[in-house]
Each structure stands twice: as C-alpha cells, then as structure tokens.
Amino acid sequence: MKVFKFGGASVNSADAVRNMAQIVKNHLEEEPLVVVVSAMGKTTNLLEKLVPGSSEFGVRSSEMRLLLEDYHRGIAAALMPDSKEVQQKIDTLLANLDRLCATLPADVEHYNYNYDQVVSHGELLSTTIIADYLNSQGVDTLWQDAREYIITDNHYREGRVDWTTTQERIKNLELRIKYSCRVVLTQGFIGGTADGHTTTLGREGSDYTAAILAHCLGAESVTIWKDVPGFLNADPKFFADTVKINQIPYNEAIELAYYGASVIHPKTVKPIQNKNIPLYIRSFITPDSEGSSIGNYRTICPETPLYIFKNNQILLSILPRDYSFIAEDNLQVIFGILNELGIRVNLMQNSALSFSICVDNNPQRIGVLIERLKHMFRVRYNENLQLITIRYYTQQVIDSIVAGRPILLEQRSRSTEQLIVPCQ
Fold first, then answer.
1. Cα separations (Å) of 340 from 335, 368, 369?
2. How far is residue 2's CA from residue 220's CA, in Å, rounded to a whole number?
C-alpha cells in the first residue's frame, strides 16, 4: 500500500483536480492507494478570517463566506456539471460552517478551539468534491473522515497524536477497506479528539497526516506531490538558480524541516523513519520526472549549501528586573509560558544577564507572551526580521546572503550557520 499527499496548489482549480486524478489513475495497483488531500488553493487563509475571535472576524465576513462558496461550487460544477449530489454535500458542509460561525464565542480564550472547528472545513470541502469526481471517472473511491482515525488530545491548533488509539483505528480501517476499493481518500491536517471535537495538526500539517497513515498502515512509501521538481537547496522564490537534491538522509531531512524548510512539515519524517518508509517528493506539473527521495542514506546527494529563510520573525530579549543571572529557575518560567501559549522557539541564545529567543511573529500569541513575561522580566524586542539558516556554509556564502545587513544574533556549528537580520 502506498500513500500519496496532494497539497492545496495541486487541487486549486478544476484543471488541477483533473491533473491530480490522472496521476492517481496512473498509479493504481492491486492494493488500494491512500490519498491525502489538503484544502483547495488558499482556502485555509480565507477560512482563518471567518474564525470567531480572530482579529478579522466580522470584517467583510459575508464577502469572504461568498468567495468560499463560489470557489468550491465553481470547481465542483466544472468537474461534474450534472451532479446535484455534490452540490447538496457542499450545502451541508457550508450550513455547518455557518452554524459554527454564528454560535462559537468570539473571544481570544476560545480562539484555538474555534480555529480548528472552522478551518477544518477546507479539507472537508476539497475531499468531498474530489471523491465524487474520482467516482464519476470510474475510480472506485472511498471517502473517509480523518477525524475518526487520527485521534489527538485537545491541544487545539497543534493536536498531539494518541498513537495507540490512532493505530487501532487505522488498523480497523485497513481490514475494512482491503480489496474493497481502489482509492481511499481522506483529509490532511485535521484529526479529532476521543470525544468527537475537531483538531488540527499544525499549519501545513497534511504531510504529517500522510506520515501517520503510512506508519500505521506499514505503507511501502509516501509520495508528496508539489509544484517544485523535488527537494531544492533553496526556495525558488528567493533564488533564481536552485539545485535539486536527489537523496536526503532521514536525519538531514529532520534538521532541515526543523529549521523551516517549507517542502515538508517538521513532524513528517519521524513516523516514517521509525519504520524505514521512504518519502518521495515529486512534481505534479511534471509527474513523470524522478523527484527527490528521503530515506536511509548516509549523505545528501549532491552535496551543496542549503538555504532556509523564515520571514516575519521577532527577536525578544528577556532580562531579570534585578540584574541577577538568568538561571534555571528563570528559564523554567519562560519555557512554561512558551509551552502554555504554544509558541515554538526558532532560535535561542543566553548570556549571564539575558535570554534571547527568535519566534514567528504571530499577533494572536506574541502580545500575550510579552504581557505575561513583563510580570517578572524586562522585555525588549525587534520586529520585521528574517532568520537565515545555511547548512554546509562557507564564509563567502554567508557574506553574499547577508549582503551588508546588520546581524542581530548569530549562531554557528560545524555544519550550520544561523543569522537574524532585518528583512530586506
């Protein structure tokens, strides 16, 4: 059994869905193909504006809601012009979305819970349309609700997987579907609690969904279909000349994902590495090309510097009010607050009198973080920053990337250089 994952860009229009369906048809074998699909295009960004408690809730909500409906109905109609059934399914999902937006408490306290209940409709809409389309094309497809199989705790927006229960649920699914259909289609990014509430696995978490399913099913491989030819040494949005990495060891992929490589979700590699399942990154634009593979290799091939850029960063310097040392008790308090607010540290550095952290500048969380820290510490911060990570650096490479900008913080190991600089 193989697992395929298609992201939003690969299903962002009727033509894109037709292309995705052709890729699926070309890879059908005796065992069912498990297909994980994200929300279509930029649907998640749109739904985020409809979440009660968000800063944009109520601002042009009716317009955003209409855009959402028109977009999905238009794709469904272009794919299946005579199907009333798929339009009725869209009706049901949109009615549930409207009910949630009207009844969920619009406050910060409930925001994370609200987010998961609302934003999950992107994946539910996309998979509903695509499953019906595949069936209309003669591909026997079983739509499955990921919330019934990927079980998490109630840590909303970053659900932690209950592996024991998830394994049991997915094994039951495997027994039920084997030889009964050709494609099992489910949602990426979303899961559910044991008592039936929707959760999400973290932004861009559909890759992680594919890895969870592959791990629990003992899959032969995972393939992530992207709009790039494979794992590139840099984001083509920043670099005109990129190099495709053909082979990446598991440990290298984990490092790169941790540093922010956008090609795979940071949690994707561990579940497949534990069972030695290879992960392929291939282009849905040129599906016959070879792409890149992540597996049990010794080194990357070819060896070349790797660049990762994270924009919209904020650097916080945290200092004791009485000029005492930053000690273990201070760090325990700081990390406790970070954990409680669900804030991931991208880079940290401490001296005798200060502790600096670089994090994503998420307005929903950073304001609360600073206020919480101010009760015990002095807090200084710089915004509009870029975190640059270079694997296999040289000084010449560093100088060309920094381009004369002031370096606010720097860390260097034998293989990795990290710099925080103002955004260009």
1. 8, 11, 10
2. 5
The helix-helix angle for 111-119 and 121-136 (nearest 10°) equals: 10
Angstrom distance (rounded) from CA 248 to CA 251: 8
Find the Cα–Cα–Cα–Cα dihedral 110, 115, 116, 119, rounded to 10°. 160
Q: Per this entry, what is the length of the chain? A: 424
**How many CB atoms are closer than 10 A to CB 93?**
15
Domain span at 387: 306-422
User: What is d(CA 281, CA 227) in angstroms, rounded to the nearest whole number?
Assistant: 10
pLDDT in tens, 363-402: 878 999 999 999 999 999 999 999 999 999 999 999 999 9
Nearest-5° angle of CA 37, CA 39, CA 41? 115
Query: What confidence tens digit (pLDDT) does each residue in 260-269 have?
Result: 887 788 899 9
Q: What CATH number does the domain containing 377 carry?
A: 3.30.2130.10
Q: pTM for this one? A: 0.89
Distances (CA, A) of 139 to 21, 74, 100, 121, 178: 9, 22, 34, 24, 15
User: Which region among 241-255, 316-330, 336-350 has the lowest average model confidence (pLDDT)?
Assistant: 316-330
What distance in Å separates the CA atoms of residue 125 and residue 24, rounded to the nearest whole number? 19
Q: CA-based angle 381:345:315, to the nearest 5?
A: 15
For helices 61-79 and 84-103, angle between their N-to-C axes, nearest 10 degrees: 160
Residues 316, 220 share a domain: no
